[in-house]
User: What shape does this take?
Amino acid sequence: MIDLYTAATPNGHKVSIALEELGLPYTLQVLDLSQGEQKRPEFLAINPNGRIPAIVDCDEDDFAVFESGACLIYLAEKTGQLMPSDAKGRSRVIQWLMFQMGGIGPMMGQANVFYRYFPEKIPSVIDRYQGESKRLFRVLDGHLKDHEYLAGDYSIADIANWAWVRTHRWSGVELDDLPHLKRWRDQLRQRPAVQRGIEQPPSALDSRVDDPEKARQFAENARKMLEQGQSIKAGV
Assistant: This one.
């Protein structure tokens, strides 16, 4: 049994999607980020960095893993699924996983902060992070032109990148001129395990993007978290 400590964010959904794809039994421990539950001592004992997601493998002496990418690698290696066992295949998956961890996630996260949450709108900063997010999207689009998935077969690399790319509208970045990325986004969205994973816990992202009042309310709550010094890097 896996205990998943999470919230309705892209990083959280990366792990819930993987658990659903792998068919591993798990319990959902949803943390209220607005109340700072991720900073409480009991959670810091699992993740000293005080961020979601984290997992505890109850079948392995309550072994704890934090950082979403590390969680994905651990689960893939535990089950022998969603990542090849040969050195080259494994490296390809990890390369695209690191692409998300070091690029897509941080750039979209900062785009969210300055486009949606930061009280002062600084156009040059917004342009910087939206522009870099779009550049990374073009990298994905170019690769997916000749590949169905990012690293051979469907893998944790696809899960990690998809969980962020699906939120592109919240970051203010469009995909209209990226047909291969859109194809991949829509294709993965049809997977039953992906559909289940983004409901663990449910996200109001789609309705929030389309409803200005809901978007305003969420941004206001996120702004308060910023002022309190809490992490909203994945706050969508």
